[in-house]
Specification:
The complex is a heterodimer of chains A (495) and B (552).
Chain A (H helix, E strand, L loop, with lengths): L7 H8 L8 E2 L2 H6 L14 E4 L3 H14 L3 E4 L16 E4 L6 E5 L4 E4 L5 H9 L3 E3 L11 H6 L15 E7 L5 E3 L13 H4 L14 H4 L9 E11 L3 E9 L2 H13 L6 E5 H8 L6 H7 L3 E9 L4 H19 L13 H8 L17 E9 L4 H14 L8 E7 L4 E10 L4 H21 L10 H6 L5 H12 L13
Parallel strand pairs in A: 2-4, 3-4
Antiparallel strand pairs in A: 1-2, 5-6, 6-10, 7-10, 8-9, 8-10, 11-13, 12-13, 12-15, 14-16, 15-16
Chain B lengths: L4 H11 L4 E2 L2 H5 L8 H10 L7 E3 L4 H14 L3 E3 L16 E3 L7 E5 L4 E4 L5 H9 L3 E2 L11 H6 L7 H4 L2 H4 E7 L5 E4 L20 H4 E2 L2 E2 L6 E8 L1 E2 L25 E7 L8 H18 L4 E5 L1 H8 L3 H9 L7 E7 L4 H17 L3 E2 L5 H9 L21 E8 L1 H20 L18 E5 L4 E8 L5 H20 L4 H4 L4 H6 L6 H12 L18 H10 L1
Parallel strand pairs in B: 2-4, 3-4
Antiparallel strand pairs in B: 1-2, 5-6, 6-12, 7-13, 8-9, 8-12, 10-11, 14-16, 14-17, 15-16, 18-20, 19-20
Helix pairs in contact in B: 1-4, 3-16, 10-13, 10-15, 15-16
The chains are: A alpha+beta (495), B alpha+beta (552).
């Protein structure tokens, strides 16, 4: 264990002076649930879990951990996908799922301020009352923390440039336990949500103080600080929307048209799924996935054309006209539905702004579990990377038709996040091992060929940082400045 | 040790004699900035003793690295500069080396399909934009002028004519290559991975753009020398070459086809300056509505000082226009761009007209002097800056009076506060600013909403001459506004942290000065990279702090 000379009993007792005893968890069965997530990351059990209710409690736990050299792992979501919330060296998990307050909503300046335990389902429900919505990723898990999703830099569904960087200001407990607020939130005030009342600021400056924390903290996997509040950009719910599908036999066939749609800035949410991923979303039941996969076009570009409050019909018209122009140029046939799927347009439209709420998470519906690989690339290189993945899968006798594919444009198509996934039966150890082998080999080959793994989870840290010169030294020096005792989420990012 | 003949010979060995000089005549040219009050005072204070000991012109990252390693060996300070626009790029102590990147002026890559460019430090905005336009792309348009270094401007806080779409410098930076103060090289974003291409900004892992800059400023060369960046390019529906017809007469600006761009000037009838507040608040309402609808490529409110300075062709022209009261108040200027199609442009025009009617605005007519002067001469410069910094035209100098980043509403509040203070100081016992160019100096207020109004930037400016006494007055005015902003708890105080401000204001903001000193000490252990920036490495005693505060 990572508790130094302390016994678990001792520090559990100490922690109970910080949080109510019932929120300090140390029974083995409970700890087991914190030892793993849905990824292939190895299980690692914490020594204790503190279910905190406030920033002050987070501070106290972190300071206590510093005094005694105990590792601390922050966790905001009840479900994790990438191993980031698994304690690599035991110690304390700070569970923030009880910090569920939506602290302030500013519809005029289009932001909402929330605590880490707020999920997309909870947030969208509240924002909808005001005609607004969160800028969300593709069908997030119902337990996914909004803040975690942003800190992990999950891509948003919209390629709009101004919604690419969604984080505005943050309250952060630094690894030393000191409280720090970023951007305009740094103005002295009694609480983050009080800044607009107690100061002349609407929390609309993300930059500074000193360095741009809103960029430095995300992607650090909870190693640079624990975010306890964040305000983020939100958007209006459209008054009109129309989901359009474009089917392609090959990924290569979609490239030019996809670039053009982005360059012309048509629509709002826009992404491409292959039949495997799309079937997992559209199938009425898991048993139907195989059949649906077989009848859907192999690759489907999905575009949500929207309009707001001002002259919505005319806005829809000019966008549809522009789409028709592109369709003529590239000989495409826009579809308002999909073969074999009743009201596909409505199904997709209804889910664009919602978390997954149809039983088992959509990525796991096919076989019970799934392992993802994701990275950034330019669109034109995506077929090359898909071929690498397929080749590796075939070499391991994995059915390529089961591989999920998701392409998400960012910044009007400057870059695309490419995600591939390998569904597997988690009860079948051979299948799990097969997928783990594919995951490791494909990741390495993709990195070798220039797939940009910007989110660096688990084994990717070594694979990536071995190729980036001094970069890891720099982020490690920053880690030492912020976390001199190296207690925050050790073992991540190669720390 | 310090700069010496040995160091000089080492630099000449690395760069060749033609690219390293200690010629006092050449070095003197690098000893000062001609304008901005701190530059004027710096010139007065520094005199001949503060000219750099040596100026070098490296031609590559490797040469920069070797220069920095020589500086570390002999322990002399060095200052990286871009195009030499701001006072932080000039020496404040003897024995300083200035690194002039003039030879590093290559556009390494211009990627049409994926909309990015890779550039060296001396690539100017006009150079990059000219190349980008040829392939249907463009870049932000800096008010600092067409000639300034893109790289330095992005790492600093460049503000742009088309920020409504593009954001400021911070939003346009993708990857970067940095020679650290110790001589190590680090690359960030996808530039860190040699096979990936230079298209992306954050990762792998933490986004080191956060380390490279912060607030409104970068670290002013205090964290090493940026030798290459990749930056965003933006969609450009206009012509491949800038139209030039009409320029010869110096009376009209070159025009664009009506199916690509349309300009609008909007006013809110009021008695100015008494109803300045109403005028600004209605402008804000219009911006909020436009933000909801996400229309337009340019949306900005220009105060008198911008309208006159940027639209006048000569200094005489400027004063003639002021005498004629061509711009009796501030105006909203909107530019529509056919990003999707002509129908999209027409839709946006229709929406804009409805919005303007809703908020009680009036479109300025084509035959009005304000329209002819601004739209006719200057508006297109908000899409491409074909000129140098025009704010300096009235007095060959200017000083930012107030600036801030926050919501549009808060920016309006700050402009009103800043203008009020400037007017009170002018009318007060010391008549501060009485010799400045008036009325420009008390009718400021650039509302520059960013990224469809999610946030907003502002400046108000004053126009002193290049005389030390006037520079001191300008700084006193700035000080008064800054004190009021601190009293008001404005976020302006956060974005302005740089140099000595860390020591005086840091305790207000989570002791950021102590964190920054740790960064400075860690990455620049000998305090060689533009010493004093981003902050000095040592922690000041209460007495030293008191002395510093008194000095301001």
């Amino acid at each position: 264990m990572g508790a130094g000379e302390f016994s678990t009993e001792t520090f559990v007792k100490d922690l109970s002076t910080i949080a109510d005893a019932e929120r300090v968890l140390s029974d083995p069965e409970t700890l087991k649930t914190y030892a793993h997530d849905t990824s292939l990351a190895p299980s690692r059990r914490p020594d204790a879990v503190v279910k905190v209710r406030s920033t002050l409690e987070v501070q106290k736990v972190v300071k206590y951990a510093n005094e005694h050299g105990i590792p601390v792992t922050p966790r905001s979501s009840a479900t994790g996908f990438y191993g980031a919330g698994i304690p690599q060296e035991g110690g304390i998990v700070i569970d923030m799922t009880l910090m569920k307050r939506i602290l302030r909503l500013d519809t005029r300046n289009k932001w909402v301020l929330v605590e880490p335990g707020v999920t997309y389902g909870e947030l969208q429900k509240e924002l909808a009352k005001h005609g607004m919505r969160a800028v969300n990723p593709l069908l997030p898990h119902k337990d996914k923390s909004v803040i975690t999703s942003l800190l992990e830099r999950e891509p948003r569904l919209t390629p709009k440039h101004h919604l690419d960087e969604t984080i505005m200001t943050m309250e952060v407990v630094l690894p030393t336990g000191e409280l720090f607020r970023t951007g305009a939130m740094a103005i002295p005030a009694s609480a983050p949500e009080k800044v607009p009342d107690e100061a002349h600021s609407d929390l609309c400056n993300s930059m500074g103080p000193g360095i741009d924390w809103y960029r430095l903290i995300p992607g650090s996997l909870g190693t640079y600080g624990i975010v306890t509040a964040m305000n983020m950009k939100i958007a209006f719910i459209p008054t009109k929307q129309k989901v359009i599908f474009f089917g392609f036999k090959n990924l290569e066939d979609s490239i030019e048209a996809f670039y053009k749609i982005e360059r012309k800035q048509i629509g709002d949410e826009c992404f491409l799924l292959n039949s495997s991923y799309l079937a997992s979303i559209l199938a009425s039941a898991p048993d139907d996935i195989d059949h649906m996969r077989s009848i859907l076009p192999p690759y489907v570009l999905i575009l949500n054309v929207t309009a707001g409050e001002w002259l919505p019909e005319e806005k829809m018209d000019y966008q549809m006209e522009a789409l028709e122009d592109i369709s003529r140029t590239y000989l495409l046939k826009p579809m308002e539905s999909l073969p074999g799927v009743q009201e596909a347009e409505k199904v997709i439209a209804d889910r664009l702004y919602q978390p997954w709420d149809n039983g088992a998470y959509w990525k796991f519906r096919a076989k019970g579990a799934s392992q993802e690989i994701f990275f950034l690339t330019t669109l034109k290189r995506s077929p090359e990377f898909l071929n690498i993945v397929k080749t590796v899968a075939q070499a391991h006798d994995y059915p390529v038709s089961h591989i999920g594919l998701y392409l998400q444009p960012k910044q009007w198509g400057r870059a695309f996040q490419m995600e591939v996934s390998f569904p597997y039966n988690p009860e079948d150890m051979l299948e799990r091992q097969q997928v783990e082998n594919i995951y490791m080999q494909a990741s390495q080959e993709l990195i070798n060929k220039g797939a940009f793994f910007y989110r660096v989870y688990g084994p990717w840290a070594d694979m990536v940082y071995s190729r980036t010169g001094n970069l890891h030294d720099i982020i490690k020096k920053i880690k030492h400045i912020l976390d001199p005792n190296m207690i925050l989420n050790p073992g991540k990012l190669g720390f | 040790m310090a700069f010496s003949d040995i160091a000089y010979r080492a630099l000449q060995d690395v760069l060749g004699e033609e690219n390293a000089t200690n010629d006092p005549v050449v070095c003197q040219a690098y000893s000062r900035v001609q304008w901005l009050p701190p530059g004027v005072l710096q010139r007065e204070r520094c005199g001949l003793d503060m000219r750099p000991a040596c100026v070098v012109m490296p031609g590559s990252t490797e040469e920069v690295q070797r220069i920095v390693k020589i500086a570390n060996r002999y322990k002399f300070p060095f200052i990286p500069r871009g195009s030499g626009f701001t006072f932080t790029a000039f020496p404040t102590m003897a024995g300083t080396l200035v690194i002039d990147p003039k030879r590093m002026n290559r556009i390494v890559e211009l990627n049409e399909q994926d909309m990015y460019a890779v550039i060296e430090p001396y690539v100017s905005f006009v150079g990059l934009q000219s190349e980008a336009m040829k392939v249907g792309l463009t870049i932000p348009t800096p008010l600092a002028g067409a000639h300034v270094s893109c790289l330095a401007n992005y790492a600093w806080h460049g503000a742009y004519g088309n920020s409504w779409l593009t954001g400021i410098g911070a939003q346009n930076l993708l990857g970067f290559e940095l020679v650290l103060p110790t001589g190590d090289i680090v690359r960030s974003g996808s530039m860190a991975c040699p096979e990936a291409g230079d298209f992306w900004n954050d990762g792998p892992g933490p986004d080191l753009r956060g380390f490279l800059r912060g607030g409104l400023f970068g670290h002013a060369g205090g964290m090493g020398v940026v030798t290459k960046i990749s930056c965003k390019l933006w969609q450009w529906p206009g012509p491949a070459v800038w139209p030039t017809k009409g320029n010869a007469k110096m009376k009209t600006s070159s025009g664009f086809p009506e199916d690509q761009f349309r300009w609008y000037m909007i006013k809110f009838p009021c008695k100015y300056p008494e109803q300045e507040e109403m005028e600004l608040k209605k402008s804000a309402e219009l911006f909020y509505e436009m933000g909801k609808a996400e229309i337009a490529a340019v949306a900005t409110h220009l105060a008198k000082q911008f309208l006159y300075t940027y639209s006048s062709q000569t200094k005489q022209d400027l004063f003639d226009n002021m005498e004629k009261d061509v711009f009796p108040c501030g105006f909203v200027v909107v530019g529509l761009q056919a990003s999707t199609s002509l129908r999209q442009l027409e839709y946006e025009e229709k929406v804009l007209k409805e919005m303007v009617a809703k908020v009680g605005g009036i479109f300025v007519k084509e035959d009005e002097p304000a329209y002819q002067t601004w739209i006719g001469r200057a508006a297109n410069e908000w899409l491409r800056f074909g000129n140098a910094q025009r704010l300096a035209r009235p007095s060959d100098n200017f000083s930012i009076g107030a600036s801030n980043v926050d919501s549009i509403d808060m920016i309006v509040y700050d402009i009103l506060e800043g203008n009020k203070i400037e007017r009170e100081l002018l009318a007060g016992p010391k008549h501060l600013g009485k010799d400045f160019v008036q009325p420009l100096s008390v009718h400021g207020g650039w509302i520059s909403p960013q990224e469809y109004g999610y946030w907003c930037l502002m400046t108000t400016d004053v126009f002193p001459e290049q005389a030390p006494d006037q520079a001191r007055e300008a700084i006193e005015i700035i000080g008064n506004i800054a004190r009021q902003q601190i009293k008001n708890k404005s976020s302006a105080t956060i974005v302005h942290l740089l140099g000595p401000a860390y020591d005086t204001l840091g305790p207000m903001f989570g002791n950021i000065h102590l964190i920054m000193k740790k960064f400075k000490n860690e990455f620049d252990p000998h305090n060689l990279s533009n010493p004093g920036y981003a902050t000095r490495p040592d922690v000041l005693s209460p007495e030293e702090l008191q002395k510093m505060a008194g000095g301001h």
